[in-house]
Amino acid sequence: MAAFKGCSALVTGANRGLGLEMVKQLLEAQCSKVFAACRDPDGPNSEALRELAKKHPVVVTIVQLDVADPSSIKVSAKKVGSLLGKNGLNLLVNNAAMLPQKTMLNATVEDMQNTFNTNVIGPLFIIREYLPYLKTAAKASGKPGMSCDKAAVINISTDSASMTIMPEVIDPFPFFPYSISKAGLNMLTVYTARDFKADEILCISLHPGWVKTDMGGGDMAPIDTRESVEGMLRVICSLTEKQNGGFLDYTGKTMPW
Ligand code: NDP
């Protein structure tokens, strides 16, 4: 993963599951700065991340960021901005998400609102607040075209947001608020790719596969976080303007919208 060497990256939901594994692998890939964002840095769910940051204090910075809270997003962006150098932020990974197990018939207003706040509105405001640093990175890079070591936004999506795949899956689908919100996230990808194309900031939606995490249902899932993140980072490394605004999975396969 030579492309990440010397790059800066920010990952949301970095305290467990795929986010934590992504921080570990970005470290292995020799990123120079990894901002590991999580909503409760001092809480019990962040112990593994605190241990990792203790071992790599120069590279890993833990940042408090509740993606469902716009003021927390603003404060985090100020902090990260003050720590980033003149090369800006190369990679922003919108990974944090929630999945209430509800169907179309029993999802409450709160289920819908909380899921949208976390899975769509959070990533939107994160992109907006971190945009100046992404633009700085794109300008500072001096490379032609688009690439992850220049400036990229990766929205972690899911196959259950696919309007083509979803109707084939279990009925009644128990991820109703989640799949609708991730379909919204996919449209955010399309807008981001279009609106910041001239700034040479690329954006894709990326499905990590069905992975053994709390959200993935633990051991029921076929792949572990290591395999998923290795695949995702391989895909991220290979991105060019051709994939801008696309929806891919961790093997590089194009996903149907
Ligand atoms: P986990 O349940 O293991 O982790 C979810 C992460 O999101 C946690 O770090 C959690 O933090 C964080 N989070 C949730 N709400 C917020 C919030 N308001 N602010 C900040 N952080 C928050 O899930 P995965 O690692 O499996 O999922 C990562 C991504 O991959 C998600 O976008 C998910 O939709 C996607 N995905 C996962 C699949 C799978 O099979 N695992 C399949 C398809 C997509 P906290 O510890 O504080 O709760």
Automatic annotation (TrEMBL):
InterPro entries cross-referenced by the UniProt entry: Fungal_SecMetab_SDRs, NAD(P)-bd_dom_sf, SDR_fam
Single annotated GO MF: oxidoreductase activity
Any one cellular-component term (Gene Ontology): cytoplasm
Transmembrane region(s): none
Gene3D superfamilies hit by this protein: NAD(P)-binding Rossmann-like Domain (3.40.50.720)
Domain of life: Eukaryota
Record's protein name: Uncharacterized protein
